[in-house]
Write a structure and sequence with these properties.
Length: 171
């Protein structure tokens, strides 16, 4: 946002910060942060819970390899995910005002199976965003892992549509 002149386009893949951070959202995010924090305190049930959680995050078989890698490192991932979920509850996690001010092409690449960030919560904003293009996928949270061919095609189509950057003189 501070240097939009250096950016030709933006791709948002099931991104947080695009729905109003109401009380429910903040409570849910804090709950998820606490769940991941429990792993650091040696919660014996965490690996089982984490496997079920990631089965929902990456539900398609095409992403099984990546899901298994993530699940195998659940203790390493837990502190990072706890911090991420804590940050999602903060007021500055709301990027809607920033998005409204951008005047660059934006691709909303959304997995329709995402249970935490469902498309219906974001579609109004996406449709009202200047320069937005929308690509919807039969995927969970990460279409680029779950439907890579379809994602690649949508991404390449978007990338080819971007305006050429003007050459800048060295500073």
């Amino acid at each position: 946002a501070n240097h939009a002149d250096r950016v030709r386009g933006l791709v948002l893949c099931n991104s947080g910060g695009l729905i109003p951070p109401n009380l429910f959202i903040r409570m849910f995010c804090r709950h998820m942060a606490r769940r991941f924090e429990k792993a650091a305190s040696g919660d014996a049930g965490f690996p089982v819970w984490f496997r079920r959680y990631y089965q929902q995050v990456l539900p398609r078989p095409e992403a099984a390899w990546r899901r298994e890698e993530i699940v195998a490192d659940c203790e390493k991932a837990a502190p990072v995910l706890a911090e991420a979920w804590r940050s999602f509850a903060e007021p500055d996690a709301d990027i809607r005002p920033v998005l409204r001010g951008l005047r660059i092409p934006i691709l909303f690449a959304w997995g329709l199976r995402d249970r935490i960030l469902p498309w219906f919560l974001v579609r109004g904003l996406a449709r009202r965003t200047p320069g937005a293009r929308i690509a919807l996928f039969d995927a969970g949270h990460a279409a680029f892992l779950e439907t890579p061919e379809a994602f690649d095609a949508a991404f390449m189509d978007f990338a080819r549509s971007l305006p050429e950057r003007e050459a800048r003189a060295p500073a």
